[in-house]
Structures are given as C-alpha cells and as structure tokens.
Write a structure and sequence with these properties.
The complex is a heterodimer of chains A (213) and B (488). Chain A has 213 residues and is of the alpha/beta class. Chain A is built from nine helices and five strands. Chain A folds into two domains: 81 residues, Orthogonal Bundle (Methyltransferase, Methionine Synthase (B12-binding Domains), Chain A, domain 1); 120 residues, Rossmann fold (3-Layer(aba) Sandwich), CATH 3.40.50. Chain B contains 17 helices and 20 strands. Chain B has a five-stranded parallel beta sheet with strand order 9-10-11-13-15. Chain B is globular, with a radius of gyration of 23 Å. Classes of the chains: A alpha/beta (213), B alpha/beta (488). At the A-B interface, helix 5 of A face loops of B. The structure holds cobalamin. Cobalamin sits at the interface of chains A and B.
C-alpha cells in the first residue's frame, strides 16, 4: 500500500507534476491519512531533493521542478489538512529590508522554503521595519527572514529585531538573516537567531530554528 | 593594425537592436519615480500607470543627442581618460563590500585607513587610468558611506573617479564636492571629473533611487554609466543573444531618460550582466560567457556610436590565487581586444564584493600587458631588413644597435616586480618569493612612496567642510582620523 506514497516521492523527485497530482488524488481516494501523504510522500521526496542539492548532485532548476510537482500534490491536500486541523511546516514572512532593492537572493530563498513545505509570505523589497513585525504578528508566523545586500541597509535588520523584541511579548518569533554583506558574526551581533548563506542552507537553518527535520 | 575582436555580425546587432526597440515600445519600462515619469510625460512619452512606452522616433533622437565620445579630467583639470573609438582605460572594480587585508589575509569590513591606502596606490599605478570608489568604509555612518568615499578619493588621488550614489539625498553633496574641485558647475560640465553608475533593475525596471540619480546627473551633465545586469537563465533568457536583447532594451531606456532630461549628457553604454550559475546561486564575473556578453554588448554600443564600459577583468576567486589571475587576465585581454572604453575590474574578487590591494598591483601588470597588446604589430624601421641583419651577422648581437635602442621601450613592455622573469637560481637567491609576497611588497612600497596630489589647500578645506556638514546631518560629529600629514 505504501508503494503509492513511495511513487509520489519518486515522481516528485523527477519533477513530474502530472504524475504527482494523479497519485496524490489516488492516495486521497484510498483513504490514506492526510498527514501520511504529506510526510511520507511529498515532504519525503522534497527532503531527498534537498539532500541531493546540498551535495551538488542536482541543480537549482531540478529543485524548482520538484517543488512545482509538490504544489500539485499540496493543493489537493491543503483543504484536508485544514479540515483535520493539521499544522503544516508553518509560516514565514520574508522580505528585503527598507532602502534595499536587491531581491534576487531573497526570492530564491523564498522559492526553496516554499519547496520545503513552508508557507511563505513575501513582502517584497524595500520593506519598512514595522511591516515585518506587524505582518509576523498578524499572520502568526514562526520565522521572519530578512535580506540585505548593501552595507548601507544592513542596519535596518537590527531595527526589525529590536522592534520585534518589543512587540513579540511571548518571544516566539525567530529571525533569520542573509545577504552578501552579512556574516554569522554580524547576525549574532544584531541579535538574529540564525544566518544562512544560500537557499539550501536557509531551509536547513529554518528547520533547525523551529525544531523540525 | 590595432587587433580587434568581434562576436557579432552587423546583421545580428541590427536584429538585436530592432527587437530591443520593439520591447521598449510594446512592453515598455516600469519607472518607480514620479519625477522621472512627469519628465518623460512632458516630453511626449506615453505613460500608463508607472510604465513608460517609448517610440522608435524618441529612441533614435536620444541616440543622436548622446555624445559619441567624451573625456574625463583629473582633479587638477588635466585630460586623463579619452573615451572614444577603441581607446581603453582601466579602472578598479567598485563598491566592494569587503577588503582582503594585505597583512592578515583576512576578509573583513574596510575602514577609512584601507580606503586611503587604496587611493594612494591607485594614484601611482601607471596602467590604471581612473580611480573608483572601490569599497565602503565601515567606520562612518552608513548614510554618508557613498559621499564619504568620493570625499576621500578626491583628497588622496588625482585620477578621475568612477562612483555612484546609494541614496537620492547623497547626490547633492557628491555634486557639490565636484563643483568645489572644479570651482564652478560650468567648468565641471566642460571637464567632467566623475562617472556615476546608474542601474536599471532587470527585467525592464527603474527604481526610485537609481532613476532619480540618473536625472540628477543629467541636470549637471555629469557622465552616467548604465549598468544593466540581466542574469542569463534566471532573470534573463539563458541564451547569450536573449540576454543581449534584454540588456540592449534596458540600456536604451536609460539613454532615452538621460537625453530627454538633458540632451547631450555624456553616457557610457555599460553593464554588469552575468550568467547565473545554477549550482552555486551566484553571478560569476569570471565566467567566459559573462565576458562574451560584455564584449558583445560593447559591439552593440559601438554600432550605435557610443562609448562603452563593462565590469570585466575581475575574478570570483576568494584570494589572490591562480584563478584570480587567469579570470582577470582573460577578461582584460578580451576587453582590450574588443575596445571597451572603460574597463572596470582590477583589484576585485568574489563576485564584485571584495577588493584586494595585492591583486590590484598584479592587475596593474595585466593592464600594462594588454595596453601593449592593443598597440598591435606595426612595421617600424623594418624594411628593408638586410642592413640590420648584416649588422647582426657582423656584431653577433643587436643589443646596442641604434635600431634596438630606438625601438626597445616601445616594442617590449617591461612589467614591474610582481611578475617574475628571473632564472631559477637568481629567483632562489632573491628569496624564492611567491607572487603573493611580491605583490605584498609592492603594496607596502607604494604606500610609502605616495606623494600628495596637487589639490590646493583651499579646495581641501572646502571638501572637508562639505563632508563634515553632511556627516553632522546624520548625527556623526567627527569623521574618522585621516593621515593628516598630506592634507590640511
Ligand atoms: C544583481 C545586483 C543588482 C541588481 C539587483 C536586481 C534585483 N532584482 O535584485 C541591481 C542592478 C538593481 C542592483 C542595484 C544596485 N546595486 Co547591486 N548588485 C547586484 C549583484 C551583482 C548580485 C546580487 C545577486 O543577485 N546575487 C545573486 C543572489 C542569488 O545571491 P545573494 O543576493 O547573495 O543571495 C543569496 C545569499 O546571500 C542568501 N540570502 C540572501 N538573502 C537572504 C535572506 C535570508 C533570510 C537568508 C536566510 C538568506 C539570504 O541566499 C541567497 C541565495 O543563494 C551584487 C554583487 C554581489 N556579489 O552580491 C551587487 C551589489 C550588491 N550592488 C551594489 C550596489 C552598489 C548597487 C547600487 C547601489 C548601485 C547604484 N549606484 O545604483 C544599486 C542599489 C539600489 C538599492 N537601493 O538597492 C554593491 C553593494 C555595495 C555595498 N557595499 O553595499 C554590490 C556588492 C556590487 C558592487 N560591488 O558594486 N544591483
């Protein structure tokens, strides 16, 4: 019976959107547990993709193809997950800080996080500090992801983190930062919870931050 | 004959230009700045929401008013860069985030002291024609980090400056500093001192800041280099021709805005496109395809009769290693053969994000070699050859022949100490130095041999006052300590 979930994972890795759509539909028809389809089918496939990507066995477009296939399955699972009250991987708010227009890296990180099953709220670029925090609180996100590519805009990240410290009274929202001028040390200095240097690394760090694997 | 390299046929160039023009007329270009939109609208450009739609006529007119060439003048008012025809001028890669410390080999944030060392070295490098605001000193308030670079550049190095603003507000003081050096806006217009980088955002967009910078520069006839950065296979077509079409459309849009703002504004047909390396999520400047795109858009610029610029002759290596040398010299060679007028790159590592003083002095030699190369092979007193060869047969050598003494220095280029041409025993006797050690020694030598530029005390005072006022505006009461022995 599990063979169908195995197949979902396999076709997902091949980036075959149609097959994943078809098989997920079948699995739902066979009354598989929704969470099981998600974990052992879709996410299992994406995890393998993530590993291969990290080892440079496959490239970005392969990951994006797989992610696209995953959405084909996810779209059908979503209503069921909501009905069963099953939490997904969680929400992340992402954006490039105020004054900065570089969004290529941030977009890539967003694509990969989505691929890994997170719900990504992308605020775009040139995003005011307050907006990150307000959106995070309203949307009950787990993580805020901040991007900056200019030496002149790095400090806005610090601003976001201090606003968050004030407004997030339960101290439950984590922060992760990235971008060419940043470093682990700088992230630490401004009180960010994590730093990542590329999109695969970002997925890994976010998972670590919120304690899933 | 000057050797020339070509990647495109005229037929293909014309096809690319036609396609780009069609894009600007049909898809238009998004402009996120009300001043620019109003300006364009006032000049008869069709605006719909924040998109501007040009016509072929408007584009052709702009191409007619954009100058075919211009020159840059140093701080003392002497002509320093001739941006015309196939002339080449090297300038260090600009706006790095980091510096590779020449003492500790650590990659770190640069400071005022690094910047001054950099300016002192560039001032003396023979084959580097202009300076650039090469990195961002991290010991000043970030709101003045763009203007502060220009300030230090003008104080410590005489060469013209390739620069740019990071914010709309910074333009004012950066313009005033230039007027201070030239004494009036009119002289500044006659003798341009700087070039400002203005970047469209791929695909087909102009941001608030960069488009405002563009029209501000145009207003004062400050030369502009357009830096369009399509990334092949990511935010541009994967094919080199497809990337060129996008680059052409984005660059043309900048030319039109500049010429509508102020006809005759000097511009460089430039860019920093790259292929996108899907394996590492990076934008390699050392990739051969990146260099091919650069050389090719330069051909398009030349076809349009415009002076050109490119970020080429730099490397993605993280240290001064063989990769740094090979990528930089390959770029410099291709750029020189293509006749790119402003070749930006020397000193730069790590995808335009790290400057190295040691690499800069090595690159200076690479530039020297390519400058020699493009002089080409020309007959001097070579025909008839028999008298000279009879002299050779008689004397057994030509070392002190008049012919040799006349032509030696022009025919042969002698690199500096960084390049080692000693035989092995001599190399051993002289310490078996590595390239890195020799480059390091050269850096130290140049820092000590620096002599202040001839910029007058009055101008220095004015620059310092402008900078201090600007710093105070952002709450910085005192500028970092400078090496005061050289200025007031
Ligand atoms: C492309 C580019 C542009 C494009 C941006 C287009 C876009 N839509 O983003 C354009 C042309 C618009 C542009 C404009 C400018 N740019 Co620019 N640009 C670059 C360039 C060449 C590449 C950046 C890039 O996209 N890299 C590829 C992506 C995939 O990598 P990445 O961004 O680093 O992202 C990865 C990681 O950092 C990480 N990451 C990124 N964000 C996040 C977020 C999170 C949460 C996490 C976990 C991880 C993460 O993961 C990503 C995926 O691998 C860099 C050079 C460089 N080495 O970075 C210069 C660079 C950043 N720009 C620079 C400059 C100066 C400018 C301008 C000011 C130029 C000007 N005078 O107009 C303007 C800025 C305008 C503004 N206010 O923002 C300088 C910065 C100087 C400085 N010290 O601050 C650089 C270093 C180049 C240079 N030497 O001149 N630029």
């Amino acid at each position: 019976m599990d063979i169908i979930l195995q197949k979902i994972s396999e076709y997902l890795q091949k980036g075959d959107e149609e097959k994943v759509f078809e098989l997920t539909k079948q699995a739902i028809g066979h009354n598989f547990d929704t969470k099981e389809i998600l974990d052992n089918g879709l996410i299992a496939g994406m995890n393998i993709i993530g590993e291969q990507f990290k080892k440079h066995e496959i490239f970005l477009p392969d990951v994006l193809m797989a992610a696209k296939a995953m959405y084909a399955g996810m779209d059908q699972l979503k209503p069921l997950l909501i009905k069963d009250g099953i939490q997904g991987m969680g929400k992340i708010v992402l954006g490039t800080v105020h004054g900065d227009l570089h969004d290529i890296g941030k977009n890539l990180v967003g694509i990969m996080l989505k691929g890994a099953g997170f719900e990504v709220i992308d605020l775009g670029r040139d995003v005011p500090a307050e907006k990150f925090v307000d959106t995070a609180l309203n949307e009950q996100v787990k993580v805020i992801g901040l991007s900056a590519l200019l030496t002149t805009t790095m400090s806005v990240m610090k601003e976001v983190i201090s606003i968050l410290k004030v407004k997030d009274t339960t101290n439950s929202i984590k922060t992760i930062v990235g971008g060419a001028p940043l470093s682990k040390d700088y992230a630490k200095e401004i009180g960010a919870d994590a730093y990542a240097y590329d999109s695969a690394n970002a997925v890994e760090s976010v998972k670590e931050l919120i304690g899933v694997n | 004959m000057r050797p020339k390299l070509k990647f495109l046929t005229d037929e293909l160039i014309q096809k690319i230009i036609n396609e780009a023009i069609e894009i600007l007329c049909k898809i238009g270009i998004e402009i996120n700045n009300q001043n620019v939109l109003s300006l364009l609208s006032g000049k008869g450009v069709r605006i719909k929401k924040s998109r501007a739609y040009f016509t072929e006529d408007i584009i052709q007119k702009a191409l007619k008013t954009a100058p075919n060439s211009f020159s840059l003048y140093d701080v003392n008012g002497n002509e320093a860069n001739d941006l015309s025809g196939y002339n080449i001028n090297f300038t260090p890669g600009s706006a790095a985030l980091h510096i590779l410390d020449y003492n500790t080999q650590e990659i770190r944030n640069p400071t005022t002291k690094d910047y001054i060392n950099f300016a002192k070295i560039v001032n003396q490098l023979k084959y580097i024609a202009s300076q650039s605001t090469a990195f961002i000193p991290s010991d000043v308030n970030e709101k003045i980090s763009d203007s502060y670079r220009l300030f230090l550049s003008l104080l410590y190095c005489k060469k013209p400056v390739i620069t740019g603003a990071f914010r709309i507000e910074s333009f004012e003081v950066m313009k005033n500093m230039q007027i201070a050096v030239r004494s009036s806006g009119k002289t500044l217009k006659e003798k341009p001192l700087t070039v400002f980088s203005c970047c469209p955002t791929s695909p087909f967009k102009w941001s608030d800041v960069t488009s405002q910078n563009l029209i501000d520069c145009a207003k004062y006839s400050i030369p502009i280099e357009f830096i369009s950065m399509p990334l092949s296979g990511f935010i541009a077509p994967v094919t080199l021709v497809g990337t060129l079409i996008q680059h052409t459309a984005e660059t043309l849009s900048g030319i039109v805005i500049s010429q509508l703002a102020n006809p005759g504004t000097p511009i460089l047909y430039g860019g920093s496109p790259a292929i996108f390396d899907i394996r590492y999520e990076t934008t390699p400047m050392g990739a051969v395809e990146t260099m091919m795109i650069d050389c090719a858009y330069n051909e398009i610029g030349k076809y349009l009769g415009l002076p050109t610029q490119a970020y080429i002759s730099l490397s993605d290596a993280k240290q001064l290693d063989a990769q740094a040398g090979l990528e930089s010299s390959m770029g410099a060679t291709l750029a020189a053969l293509s006749g790119i007028n402003m070749i930006a790159g020397p000193g730069m590592l790590d995808f335009e994000s790290c400057q190295s003083l040691e690499k800069l002095v090595l690159d200076n030699e690479i530039c020297g070699m390519t400058l020699r190369m493009v002089k080409g092979i020309e007959p001097k007193e070579d025909f008839p050859a028999i008298p000279l060869l009879q002299e050779l047969l008689k004397e057994k050598h030509l070392l002190i022949s008049k012919h040799t003494r006349t032509h030696l220095k022009l025919e042969h280029f002698f690199p500096g100490q960084v390049i080692n041409r000693a035989n092995r025993p001599r190399w051993i006797e002289e310490g078996s130095t590595s390239l890195k050690e020799r480059a390091h020694n050269e850096v130290e030598k140049l820092i000590t041999s620096y002599e202040p530029t001839k910029i007058s005390k009055e101008i220095q005072k004015e620059l310092i006052q402008l900078m201090e006022t600007e710093a105070r505006r952002y709450g910085q009461e005192k500028l970092p300590d400078r090496d005061l022995s050289h200025c007031v």
